[in-house]
Amino acid sequence: MRGSGQTEKQKVCASCKRALPPGALFCGFDGTRVDDGSEAKANGKEQKQCATCGKQFPAYAQFCPNDATKLTEMKPAAATPEPPKPSPFAAPPGFAAPQPAQNPSGANTPVPNAAEPVAPKDLTDTAPPIDEELARSGDFGKEPRKPTQMAEIFEEDQGLFHNLIGKKIEGKYEVQSILGEGGMAIVYKAYHTKMERLVVIKVMQGWLLSNKNAVERFERESKTTAKLAHPNIVTVFDYGVLNGKEPYLVMEYIKGESLGDKIARQGALPFATAAGIIIQICRGLQEAHSVGIIHRDLKPDNILLQDRSDRPDWVKIVDFGISHLVQGAKRLTKTGKMVGTPEYIAPEQLKDKPLDIRTDLYALGIILYETLTGRVPFEGESAEGILMKHLLEPPPPLSMHNDDFAEGTPFDAIIAKALRKEPDERYQTATEFRLDVEEALNKVLLKRNSK
Predict the structure, then answer these.
(1) Of 253, 268, 297, which closes a domain?
(2) Torsion-angle region of 393 (φ positive above 0: left; ψ -120 to 50: alpha; else: beta)
(3) What is the band of 285 on the pLDDT scale with cuts at 50, 70, 90?
(4) Average pLDDT over residues 41-47
(5) Which of 24, 101, 132, 153 could make a disulfide contact with 20, Cβ separation 3.0–4.6 Å?
(6) Catalytic (active site) residue 297
(7) Higher pLDDT residue, 82 or 143?
């Protein structure tokens, strides 16, 4: 608490130009550092920096809200030693000053830091991609908050970015650990004390709370996913708000791994395994598409493989955070803003054309290719290079990555059709896609059995 007799200079965020309280270290709207670092150092607070945009953020932050880059800890600047002050007394002749004791090793032995637990990869929102509007939007409401209001908010929000581990939410969710963090939310594992089961709680990132679009998108994810009652889509149990301002979503806990992790661990998957996964994804997508919902960011990291005793690799589709209703929904991204992950982007997403369910089927074709080869069809050193290949190049043949495909497989034709540049030439429904995959798998198995 600062003395009431002190008059402190008002601070302003260099990024969003919002007035901030005198004691603020970071902007509550976009996470930008607003002090010169001296106050943070005095309080012993470490900081992190984005290697892409160069902005600095609090120590709790994991990703940059502007470009989703993984943040790294800032190295403290080397202190410049002050020159020794001259003694007012001259040393008498022949006097030898005592030498300071030396470390036996000749150097200071650093005290090792306590080992920090490593959180597992985020299975629901692995470095989910955020569009430019969401990251940089200045739409924080018509009337900017007054400095007095901001001071009250900062005073109240000291716990906004707190660690929820060990705390209880709504008197029934005991938070156990952090599963991961993405550009839009922090994901916790918790225990439902009344139902006696594990759940996942997804809490919105604090610096997005003043962004009207971000809050709308998070709320829409809750409502959208809650509508989808299907065995191959993650189930939403609850929705609420922490501290009157932090929205959160409670979902079923999936014990297993993402398809992305499985491919990274095993490489190319067998025909039967790959086909079984794709068939389940098709069933889940068909349910979403039937109620007019497009996922728009379908990728292996958003496909969870549940570890079930009755059946391995049971598919659960997650993260409908940037999903879009085909009709009747308010668009939360401006025209020309790309939403999605470059390796799985459909050509029409780059041409500012209307999106429909065939956008998801293009991404599913990429996933099928990746499950069979361990590689995505379009690779490059930059996002721009990858996107140009989506627009201009056909997918490389499967045989390029596996000699076993040299004679061709029934899956080649499926991938070729799914990855057509024009949506009208692709599969038109997830059911049509599924039926062809089932037929291709049967042909492969019959051919093997006949040998």
Answers:
(1) 253
(2) beta
(3) very high
(4) 51
(5) 24
(6) yes
(7) 82
Which residue among 192, 222, 253 closes a domain? 253
Q: Tell me, what CATH number does 403's domain have? A: 1.10.510.10
Average pLDDT over residues 120-138: 38
Task: Please check whether residues 266 and 222 belong to one and the same domain.
Answer: no
Assess whether 320 and 425 both reside in one domain: yes
What is the per-residue pLDDT across 302-322, written as a single tens digit (0 to 9) for each?
Answer: 999 998 877 889 999 988 755
Q: Which of 122, 131, 297, 313 is catalytic?
A: 297
Token pair of 373 as six digits:
């080869």
**pTM of the full structure:** 0.63
**In sequence order, what are the beta bridge partners of 33?**
26
Distances, alpha carbon 419 to alpha carbons 7, 282, 348, 365, 381, in Å = 64, 16, 12, 6, 21
- Given pLDDT bands bounded at 50, 70 and 90, which one contains residue 119? very low
pLDDT band at residue 11 under the 50/70/90 scheme: confident
Domain that holds residue 172: 120-129+162-253
pLDDT in tens, 152-195: 333 344 334 457 888 999 889 999 999 887 777 888 999 999 99
One domain, residues 270 and 408: yes
- Tens of pLDDT along 239-275? 888 887 888 989 999 999 999 999 999 999 999 999 9
- Given this model, what pLDDT does residue 6 score? 47
* 315 and 328 together in one domain: yes
Q: Give the per-residue SS3 of the chain.
A: CCCCCCCCCCEECCCCCCEECCCCCECCCCCCECCCCHHHHHCCCCEEECCCCCCEEECCCCECCCCCCECEECCCCCCCCCCCCCCCCCCCCCCCCCCCCCCCCCCCCCCCCCCCCCCCCCCCCCCCCCCHHHHHCCCCCCCCCCHHHHHHHHHHHHHCCCCCCCCEECCCEEEEEEEEECCCEEEEEEEECCCCEEEEEEEECHHHCCCHHHHHHHHHHHHHHHHCCCCCECCEEEEEEECCCEEEEEEECCCEEEHHHHHHHHCCCCHHHHHHHHHHHHHHHHHHHHCCEECCCCCHHHEEEECCCCCCCEEEECCCCCCEECCCCCCCCCCCCCCCCHHHCCHHHHCCCCCCHHHHHHHHHHHHHHHHHCCCCCCCCCHHHHHHHHHHCCCCCHHHCCHHHCCCCHHHHHHHHHCCCCHHHCCCCHHHHHHHHHHHHHHHHHHHHCC
